[in-house]
Each structure stands twice: as structure tokens, then as C-alpha cells.
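task queued by scheduler; priority normal; single chain, no ligands, no partner chains; default sampling; output format set to C-alpha cells
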Amino acid sequence: MEALKNHHQLFELLPNEVVVNTFTFVDADTLFDCRLVCKRWKELIDEYAFQEKVARKNKFMNDGRGYYSFSQINSNDIRKLDLPWYVFYVIIKYDPFNRNLVKNHCGQDEWNHWENVTNTLWTIRSDVDIFNYVNLSCIQRISQDNRCVLSDPDFDGHTSCFVIDFQYLRSIKQKIIFKDYGLNEIVMKTLRPKISFSAWYYREFCRNIIYTLRATVHSRTNEVVGVCDSIDTDLFGWNKVSNSFEIRGDETSLILHHSMTNLRLSTLLYNFKMSCSVVKISLPIKYKNIDSLNDDVKKFTSQMVSTLSFSYDTEDVSFIS
């Protein structure tokens, strides 16, 4: 009973599974700070709390669809994942994996978030907005007759597209900074995830033009450390290009480029349409080897799941939100 005289020691009398259960009700940033309190708290938070917290919140996220990051696995398997605690922390804060990181991917917000590079064959003052000046690049709606195009879930309900006049524009591009989504160099080097990119495009008959969708990845010093292209074929109408690559871990940003190469300097570069630009970073899936756990860990895991199962069923949804 001597320990009860010091209220700071009351928490230490609780069994591990109850402590972990309590931690799951703490917001992610506070839980991050709690790791500094003592060795016991750090071990429980790193080993169990973040993972259990994200597993319990999953069914309430994105209108009940769960975190994008776990879209490729069963929700019951989240507790089986063998990932560092900071990956679960990033998912709680940013949910960056398996989702489209391109902003304004269909032109639903006009030209916001996109940069343009003018065609050097034309001389236009640098202080002039190229889109307003030529008035040939614009935003249009994709006809509902193109159901095979709009059925792609990456459109996310949008039906707009960019109409780009490549007589005046050499390319349009968008930069994605990984750190904006919690993907710092530690996370990227640990996971070395796969990056996929794609886009839909439309062009009319013209064999002298090559469309290229390019992803360039950059280091902290903005050095280009990787290039991946997806080049179209001779198909016309609406088509989709896509590609993917694995990173080495020191990449900090990606630039997605849409560009055209005019082989014969033809002027027939108008009415090129592009939509549904997508860049996704996949979450590597690796499960824990339960058979390799010792008896003590197995016993603790069983007790914790039993304790948390009761709390999970009775949890107030308003707390999660």
C-alpha cells in the first residue's frame, strides 16, 4: 500500500493491457510525446498502442471505408502487420498510402496546382498568363458516352478534363513533396515503397505527335535521382498510360510531367485532352511471424486483444471523430 501514497505510481500498478487500452484514447501527437515519459510507456506505445489505435479507428475513417493506406488488406489484418510504430503514426496523421497524391487531378479546380512550360518555338512575354493569352487551353466535361473512361475509380466522381494546346505549351507539371504527407526520409528509407503513376489522355488522328507521361524523383538537394516514362502508342481517342517503379529511399519529391513531342513541327497540336492524373505510393505489406513470438509475448497479446475487444465494441464514435 506504500505505492498508493504517490499518485504518480498508481498508473504503474495497472497491467500492460489496460495501459495500452488507455493509450488508444489519446490523440496521436500526445501519444507521440508520451513515449518520452519512461521506458515502459515507450515500449508499450511503440510495440502496441499506435498499431492498436489505427486498427480501432479504421472502420470510422473515410465514411466507413477505412484508411486508404489499408485498402489492400482486410481490416482484421491490421494488427498483424509488421511495421515500425512511426508508420502507424504517419497513417493516423496523413493516411498517405494507396491514395492519389495529385491535387486537382481532373481539372475540377481549373488550373490550380499545375505549372506550365511554354513552347520555345513561340515568343510570349513572361509576365503573360499563357492560359488566358492563347485562350485555347481550357477545361471541358468528358461526355457521359465515355463510360469506360469515367468508370475508373480514380476519377473519384469528377468528369472534367484539361484541354491543352501544345502549340504554345511544351508541358504541364505538378510537384509532390513527400514530407507534406508525413513521408520523411526515415519512413521512405525504411519502407522503400513502390510508386505508381497514370493518366487518361485523348488525341485526334496525328501520327507526328508523341505524348509522354513522366515521373521524375528528386533528392533533398533537388537533384534528379530517378526518371520513369510512360509513352503512348499510335492509338487515338481516350487511352490510359501507366507505369510504376521502386524507390531507393533518399527521394524527397516527385514531379509529374505531361508533355508532347512534335516530330515534324506540325501545327495540329490542339484538342489534346488529359484527365485523372494519379500518383500513388503503395504501403509494403509484411505480417508478423506469430510462431516466432515467445510465450510471454503471446500471453500479453492475447490479454490485450481481450481487453481491447470489449472497449472496441462499446467505443463512442464521437471520440473517434
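post-processing summary
- The chain is about 25% helix and 25% strand.
- The longest helix spans residues 39-57.
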